[in-house]
Amino acid sequence: MPHSARPHKARTGRPRSAETDRAILDATRAALVDLGWGKLSMGDVAARAKVAKTTLYRRWANKNELVVDAVAVLFDELELPDSGCLQADIKDVALQFGALLERPETKTALMAVVAESTTDAALRERIRAAIVDRQMRLVILGRERAQARGELPPDAPGPEGARAAADAVGLIFDVIAGAIVHRTLVSAEPVDDAWAHRLATVLLLGLTGLG
Questions:
Q1: What does residue 50 show for φ and ψ, rounded to 5 degrees?
Q2: How much is the pTM?
């Protein structure tokens, strides 16, 4: 029988519940704040979320995966405004990101997974896929809007242009995320309106040459 003609096998079991997922991820972040990475266990999360431990393991293979996803959903809250000005858009995202990192559950969870990832290559890859790659969308969208408004030059055609665009997106993300993470988590300084404005100004000056 050709592959396309094979009968579809019906899914068995209950579909995943978004409400249960939210309860588990909320419980994970709360447990991290209370217990820290070392003492956190899947059993503790299950108890806090009021679900069976098997429910967790059907969704996440281990604590590392669970904690990364618990952090990732927080970063999905970030939104890129459409103010009509690239500098204002950068400033707004910086303020959102800074406020997010000020939340105890975000700060604790992010620092825990980053520290653990220094000796765990698989965890680093999961962080990249679940957080970094997903949030690149903000840079891609902001850059496209700025090009449409004429604030940034268009990408060069062909494969070389595509590679240069991808490099530019990665560098922009690294500069914004790196500066904000360092200020909030290392220097313990606030990402306030004045600082976010200066960051946007410096980045915009660099972008005019980078494209």
A1: 60, 45
A2: 0.82
